[in-house]
Design brief:
With 360 residues, this protein is an alpha/beta fold. The chain folds into 2 domains: 215 residues, Isopropylmalate Dehydrogenase, CATH 3.40.718.10; 118 residues, no CATH class. 40% of the residues lie in helices and 18% in strands. The strands form 2 sheets. A 10-stranded mixed sheet has the order 2-1-3-12-11-4-5-10-8-9, sandwiched between helices. The protein has a two-stranded antiparallel ribbon with strand order 6-7. Helix 1 crosses helix 10, helix 5 packs across helix 6 and helix 7 runs parallel beside helix 8. It is globular, with a radius of gyration of 20 Å. Bound molecules: 3-isopropylmalic acid and manganese (II) ion (MN). 3-isopropylmalic acid (IPM) binds next to helix 4.
């Protein structure tokens, strides 16, 4: 029986509790197949040691099969340029391990109340694929600050970066069963091609990639307009591909339409490496009180099982992913044990136990 080594970086704030919850659930689902190694990293570690992502942690992340992360960042722990230290955990992992596709499922689960009227569970089910290694984020730590008067960051769009994230989006659409509205396999390109050459180039490269996918439709939406479409016709979407900053913004809007960031999973994928974490932050105000919902991190763990299963041709992991997602869905649909962010009063440990009980 193969053993998969998982690097876990619990991080800051609610990170440790939601990460441990996911480890408990994944261990319940897959047993000894998964071997978790807890590694240092995050803003608190930076305050203690000066290293937000220690070399030995990075080396372990690079060599192990996958990475599971809780959350990182503490208020007031910033670099001299004003940017937050904690974010460097994922940003360094993203850029140094070239995790070019940030996959963010937007799905309304039974039992979860959407703020959108008229779209029951099953009618909101799409995936945002955010380019994760360039765009406006290419400037992080490299922006120009002239005399404290003029500060600029540059938007970088490359052919290679766009081709590979677009291909990822079309391949994903090919594996899915199409948009809820019409069953059409569809990739929507989110950009601002009407105004900026960089986005016109992004769109043109997506068009080139589309030529190899006759079975998948292509659709375009400007980044401003799509915020309205995501509220008025979410069932139209199947896969949305976007530049880094636009993807960061619309993925939070999408999460808001299906229950919020407490349920928003993410998979940050490169050719050989995968980082899995809830799309929420470290929520230091509720840290250590057993109040946080582990659902986003648990669902990210399911994405990890599915990805590992695909990477290694391991059907038992893919089945484990299905069981974890079904267990979460069953707990939410039953409506007895509901996390606080979804209107209930369940603690982190009560959610964890309820999901594990379903798995048992
Ligand atoms: C996200 C977060 C990160 C980002 C921050 C925490 C670095 O907002 O993953 O969506 O900006 O990508
Ligand atoms: Mn974000």
């Amino acid at each position: 029986m193969p053993i998969y080594d998982i690097a876990t970086i619990e991080g800051d704030g609610i990170g440790p509790e939601v990460c441990r919850s996911a480890v408990n659930v994944l261990s319940q689902a897959c047993g000894a197949t998964l071997r978790f190694t807890q590694l240092d990293g995050g803003a608190a570690h930076y305050v203690k040691t000066g290293a937000v992502l220690p070399d030995d942690t990075f080396a372990a992340c690079r060599s192990m099969h996958a990475m599971l992360h809780g959350a990182a960042g503490l208020p007031g722990v910033t670099y001299p340029d004003g940017t937050e230290v904690g974010n460097d955990v994922h940003l360094q992992l993203r850029f140094r391990l070239d995790l070019f596709a940030n996959v963010r499922p937007i799905r309304l689960y039974a039992g979860v109340q959407s703020p959108l009227a008229g779209f029951p569970p099953g009618r909101i089910d799409y995936v945002i694929v955010r380019e994760n290694t360039e765009g406006l984020y290419a400037s992080r730590g490299a922006g120009v600050n002239l005399r404290g008067e003029v500060v600029t960051d540059t938007l970088v769009v490359t052919r290679k970066g766009t081709e590979r994230v677009a291909r990822f989006a079309f391949e994903l659409a090919r594996r899915r069963s199409g948009a809820p509205r019409d069953g059409q396999r569809r990739v929507t390109v989110c950009d601002k091609a009407n105004i900026l050459r960089s986005y016109a180039f992004f769109r043109a490269v997506c068009d080139e990639v589309k030529a190899g996918y006759d079975d998948v439709a292509i659709d375009y939406a400007y980044a401003d307009a799509i915020t309205v479409h995501m509220l008025k016709k979410p069932d139209f979407y199947d896969v949305i591909v976007a530049e880094n900053m636009f993807g960061d913004i619309i993925s939070d809007l999408g999460a808001g339409t299906v229950g919020g960031l407490g349920i928003a999973a993410s998979a940050e994928l490169g050719e050989r490496h995968g980082l899995f974490q809830g799309a929420h932050g470290s929520a230091p105000d509720i840290a250590g009180q057993n109040l946080a919902s582990p659902v986003a991190t648990v669902l990210s763990g399911a994405l990890m099982l599915r990805w590992l299963g695909e990477q290694h041709g391991d059907e038992s992991l893919r089945a484990g992913a299905d069981r974890v997602e079904q267990a979460v869905e069953a707990v939410l649909a039953a409506g007895q044990i509901v996390p606080r962010d979804l209107g209930g009063s369940a603690s982190c440990s009560e959610m964890t136990e309820a999901i594990c009980r379903r798995l048992r």
